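A common beginner's mistake is to predict each chain separately and then try to dock the pieces by hand. The better habit, illustrated here, is to supply every component at once so that their relative placement is modeled jointly.
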Amino acid sequence: TRELTAKREALLGASYRLFYRNPVHVVRGQGAYLWDASGRKYLDVYNNVPSVGHAHPAVVAAVSAQMATLNTHTRYLHGSVLAYAEDLLSTLPGELDQIMFMCTGSEANDLAIRVARAYTGGTGIILTSEAYHGNTELTSAHSPALGSSQPLDPAARLVSPPDGYRADWAADGSVGQWFAARVQEQIDAMREQGVPFAGLLIDSVFSSDGVFTGEPGMLAPAFDVVHRNGGVVIADEVQPGFARTGDAFWGFGRHGVVPDIVTMGKPMGAGMPISGMAAKREVLEAFSLKVPYFNTFGGNPVSIAAAQAVLDTIRGEALQERARTVGAELRASLTALADRFDVIGDVRGAGQFTGLELVTSRSTKQPATALALDVIEGMRERGVLTSVAGPSGNILKLRPTLAFQSGDIDWLMESLTDALVQALETRP
Ligand code: PMP
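With all components supplied together, the output reads:
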């Protein structure tokens, strides 16, 4: 492991970051589990890319068969991309009736920002304060999570996420109203500064901000504010999409809202690089009737075969329903554990997307950053892989593959409990 780590740094440069003080060298995956080079088994509680489970046989078979038949760039006619487009659009609100394909979430958001600007004639995009939306020049400039060395787009403005645990929302009536008021403030500020408003770009579960799934309907007031002010809402579904939140196929679906543009990626092809940007026809046409778009690999037959197999598997194995029930079971266990540990400040989530916020004490709510790091290292030592989110890195992000079942909860809970006990002993 030490040799590979050194070689990686020497060959790939300093920008890449590995997880863990002692990085995991994985060589094989199956369902909810991973194995390292020494044959040790791990429970994967973080990986949303192999969405339907590692090495799912339906995805493996579809990709292998298509690779053995044809793979090509995307400027020939091919039926499968159209069949998939129809199938996928049927999971979205009817107003979103066109979709374009690319390879990464970054490309999807990059295009979405261009489309939003073309449709509205504006430039200003509102983002949440720890959001990550991609690695291109445009999306990096709309990703405050990258820190102060990455300059933000001059027209971008930040709002705090709808943090029901910390935000002082009581005077606004609900955290959703509170969030909408913050969005309105930034629209007003843009107007005063002569920046024409284009829209709001949000991850509908606020993954990097710290996992704020909120009550169903929470996002409706903010969507209303954006639309009343002539902007568009881009829902970045790269993390919440594809059945993860349990109640709905898309993260925004829990809130009864219709975005103007929806971007998606990570879980879409269970590891094959495929992403998409769906939009309302009139929104997309403001861009597409003027600007040609070509993406060599975006929506190629092999990636589409993987994506179709993912969609079929989510339905065939009722994975949305499993995400809903198993996720609720997990949060019930975590909530029960909070009776034992005052450092568990909050347990929140929807479906298989859970945030566990660690604090130095429940009364002060001070983020327990070092403790959270010790806990994820301790869980790794016990074979359970996860990570942290939020501006202080004190929120455990539990986001397993959808192959994670009730029977996996015990291992997760045992490792978490033991890691907490050990971390609190060494760091009282
Ligand atoms: N949006 C969100 C919410 C993400 O989490 C990510 C990746 N972490 C991206 C966009 C970018 O996706 P990709 O890495 O596939 O370009």
